[in-house]
Amino acid sequence: MSKEIAVIGSGDFTTGFRLAGVRKFANVPAEPDREEMDAAVTELLEDSEVGIIVMHEPDLEHLSREVRERVETSVDPVLVTLGGGAGSGGLRDQIKRAIGIDLMEEDEQS
Amino acid sequence: MAQDVKPTRKNLMQIEDRIELSERGHDTLEKKRDGLIMEFMDILDQAQDVRADLEDTYEDAQERIDMARAMDGDVAVRGAAAALKEHPEISTQSKNIMGVVVPQIESTKVRKSLDERGYGVLGTSARIDEVAESYEKLLEQIILAAEVETAMKELLEEIETTKRRVNALEFTLLPQLNENKEYIEQKLEEQEREEIFRMKKIKANKEAAEKEEREAAREAEQAATQ
């Protein structure tokens, strides 16, 4: 079962990945409106050929709450965000909830 | 809740069996939870290393592409990007950590040599090659990060369910069962005491009746002799 990597982001963001050979990408304007972003992400989430979705961390802010939660908790495809520092992608909240301690915060201080 | 059970010996035995089973289950689940958390700590360390590398590589790659854009022009970079023929592919296999299935992602065709990239070597500058190379490296690390972070998500979910089960047993089911057990035990004891008292009462009645009979008999005897 072979899958592909998909990139969602502004034209500047996706160009580099296309140079590395990523075929599936969705270009959204630098200041995208919510619906456009939602549509792009939902489409890739439902694409069975996509194994990993790469996004720029600030772009997550443009997603509607529902889609954002869906993409953050999704395992297949899994979301990897760039440019957000540690503890991005909702993982930090999940850790806090499951373990009861904010493990990420501790590591930021050290 | 205690009033819902009938205070019979059979129920008491059933409840005792259930308590034993629940306690065993509770211990096992607790061990599982601790084991999962230990596994999770290992992965967390790994994930944080991978994350840090990823961010570094991303910044590096961004710098390079900005440079290429500035020197060669946006059109050249976009043109080269559109010409790519080989596409990276990933395939997933699964690995089992304490009953949690986590993916292991294998990638192919991420790193490409110059002639595999598909854009003309003559028409483009070395800067674009550098950009392509650094993004290939970035992709590799993204794949690694995806693997580790998926494993983390799966583990966290499992930890959450296990924790919830442990707590449900410890704070809801076991106290309830113990309460029921105590209720039945007390009720049975009370019944026993009532029974003893009743026996004593019956015995006393019986003795009184016998005494009366004996006295009546003696009176009758005395009446007969007179």
CA-based shape of chain B: rod-shaped
As residue ranges, the low-confidence spans of chain B are none
| Helicity level of chain B | over 70%
Order of helices and strands of chain B: HHEEH
Describe the structure.
The complex is a heterodimer of chains A (110) and B (226). In chain A, 43% of the residues lie in helices and 22% in strands. Chain A is of the alpha/beta class and 110 residues long. The longest helix of chain A has 13 residues, at 34-46. Chain A is globular. Chain A starts with a strand and ends with a helix. Chain B is mainly alpha-helical and 226 residues long. Chain B is 77% helix and 8% strand. Chain B contains 3 helices and 2 strands; from the N terminus they run ααββα. Chain B has helices at residues 9-72, 74-82, 126-225, and strands spanning 89-97, 100-108. The two termini of chain B are 71 Å apart. Classes of the chains: A alpha/beta (110), B mainly alpha (226).
Output the keywords.
heterodimer, A: 110 residues, alpha/beta, four-stranded parallel beta sheet, 5 helices, 4 strands, 43% helix, B: 226 residues, mainly alpha, two-stranded antiparallel ribbon, rod-shaped
Mind sketching the topology for me?
The complex is a heterodimer of chains A (110) and B (226).
Chain A: E1 2-9, H1 11-19, E2 24-27, H2 34-46, E3 50-56, H3 65-73, E4 78-82, H4 91-99, H5 103-109
Chain B: H1 9-72, H2 74-82, E1 89-97, E2 100-108, H3 126-225
Antiparallel strand pairs in B: 1-2
Kindly summarize this structure in a few lines:
The complex is a heterodimer of chains A (110) and B (226). Chain A has 110 residues and is of the alpha/beta class.
